[in-house]
Request: fold
Amino acid sequence: MSNPLPHVTQNPNAAQHLMSNSEQPTPRSPAKSPNALKRLLPFVGKYKLAVAMAGVFLVLAAGATLAFPWALKVLIDQGLAKQEGRVHLAEHFLALFGVASALAVFSAARFYTVSWLGERITADVRNTVYAHVLKQSAEFFETTQSGEILSRLTNDTTLVQTVVGSSLSMGLRNLVMGVGALTMLIWTNPLLMLQVMGLLILVVWPSMRMGRRVRKLSRASQDRVADASAIASEVLNAIPVVQSYTAEERESERFSESTQFAFMTAVNRTKARAVLVGFIIMATSAALLWGLYEGTLAVQAGTLSAGELGQTIVYVILLASSAAVLGEVYGDLLRAAGATERLMELLETRSTINSNPQSVEPAWPINGSVVRIENLSFKYPSRPNQWALKELSGTAQSGQTIAIVGPSGAGKSTLFSLLLRFHDPLSGFIEMDGARIEEMSLSALRNRIGLVPQEPVVFSGTAMENIRYGRVDATHAEVLEAAKAAFADEFIQALPNGYNTFLGERGVRLSGGQRQRIAIARAILKNPPLLLLDEATSALDAQSERVVQEALNRAMKNRTTFVIAHRLATVQQADCIWVFDQGKLCEQGTHNELVAQGGLYAGLAKLQFNLHRTNDD
Reply:
């Protein structure tokens, strides 16, 4: 049976194939500079006041740092060289302390403001990407591993946070200090520092060349970490199967191989970055030491005072340290640029299923929706040579129950997928309550449909929260009523904390039948005019199946219902049975009519009922 719900692939290289062909943005070559960070500007622009305050504090902190060498010069030339009294000497030291105090206050304010910005922007990026991913079509999730998405939402946003909340601020601060120190050095000894600047320019070109390699390796390193996360997510979500096949060691080895690959890629990145940082420090130090050497010669020649030499030394140290920090920050910017690209790739992904901007919303039906299907044909993108549905036509009147039967892979669940617009047909259309579903907004369409899948989904919350997922504004009494209708109230009341019992991730504390009844209660609470039941009682034992079937029969009143069933005993009372075979509707009618025809349905019924008699005997 075709699966109408999104699933993840098992391709360990899915990080390199994030989107399907129809949803993948135009490939770009990796950025050769941190320019990719410009794509964060829309997120930064929402906090202009905080950005302005951070800029002011950054400039003030850098200014206080640059004022320190000048105060030191005054101390040396006037306080020490002229041998002033204790009072005047204390005044000079107090001035130095004042500069240090200003530096402390402005640095603390800058740190808080920039850190707040980093955390806020990261949260906004993470929320935006997550909300965007949730709106993607089933086609996207068929080609994307959940672990890959989680890696981008966690690891990549953490890198962005590090840069926006720390590295970028540090880089700008050191850039201001470096430019300021260089300006002061040029002002005090222009000819000498012009020589130094010429030497510094020679450092830039090879640094940029090495930076490109660091950038590529940073992106590759992040992709390999995402691969490992995807493997871990996939295995942890299927841990019962892994353990039942005693595959723990095999999966551990597969994960170890992936992490080793990520480690080796990270080592190459770190090696390239270490070479880049070392080169920048060595080259800038050589250039600045040359300037310091020339300054010392000037003092010996009497053209420079001791205070001016001290001031020059401190400015040289500031310039050298700024250059070193900028080299480190540049590496961080390259890594964050890769992370930003990966996040923006998700944001650029466009779903193939979109709401009509001029959507129509037909009146809410009283006794169930009227569904008309006309010449519906569809192929899955992953199986372009095989029809999942071929020229399907049929009508479900208001309040009718339509049972859908047929061999596995006949297209039964595909019909549910098209009704919910997880996919759009290649030809033909579906009409609901007088409007084509592609003309309705996705929310308006899906609000009219309640789905109980073959594999029930239970979230890691309480029983109350899981049932209320069907309608978040439902009252406590309405939740209880839905649970009773699904015959879930009795076992929920028996849980340690009743409806407030935490059910565990994927409902691991419940049996399969109990999870199914939670899903049924959720659909009943939603109270939609169209109900889709995909083997809704398949996980129940014989006694529970009869009870829940009775509850479903009551719940199906006053609404249209499509029921997929392999066990034909559950659909004999349906108003009409549609028999699917190889994507086509080959038979339709009541149970007795189809048995009398002697076709596919009659063969299935004979096989199942004979088996039942044998088991009974």
About this structure: The first strand starts at residue 371 and ends at 378. The domain at 356-448+560-617 is CATH 3.40.50.300 (Rossmann fold). The chain has three domains: 19-348, 356-448+560-617, 450-527.
